[in-house]
Amino acid sequence: MDNDSLIGLAFGFVCGIAILFAISALVVGTIFKMPFGVNLSAAHCAECEEPAPTVRAPKDRYEMMWGGWTCQECGCKNDKWGRARQGKRRRRQRSREEE
Q1: What domain range is 85 assigned to?
Q2: pLDDT for 3-48, tens place per residue?
């Protein structure tokens, strides 16, 4: 084998490992509901059970990168799985208790 064949073989091996890693990360993320997973079912708001909009308009960087939405009814910030994002729920509860 010459050098070009070895370089091509090594490059193909590295690309194959990278693709395998990306696919496994996607599958694991979907199974365990992580940010890099894919949600294949309809999501609802964690607080008021309002369905997620069909077409979402991201309100912040998290929603732009990882999915999710801000509920139009109650203002709850949800991830793509329909769970309230950490830190966002407590602030709303405190403000409701103060009223």
Answers
A1: 39-99
A2: 899 999 999 999 999 999 999 999 999 999 999 899 999 999 999 9
User: What is the 3-class SS of the chain, one letter each residue?
Assistant: CCHHHHHHHHHHHHHHHHHHHHHHHHHHHHHCCCCCCCCCCCCECCCCCCECCCCCCCCCHHHHHHCCEECCCCCCEECCCCCECCCHHHHHHHHHHHC
Whether residue 48 is found in the same domain as residue 92: yes
What is the domain count for the chain? 2
Pair 44, 7 in one domain: no
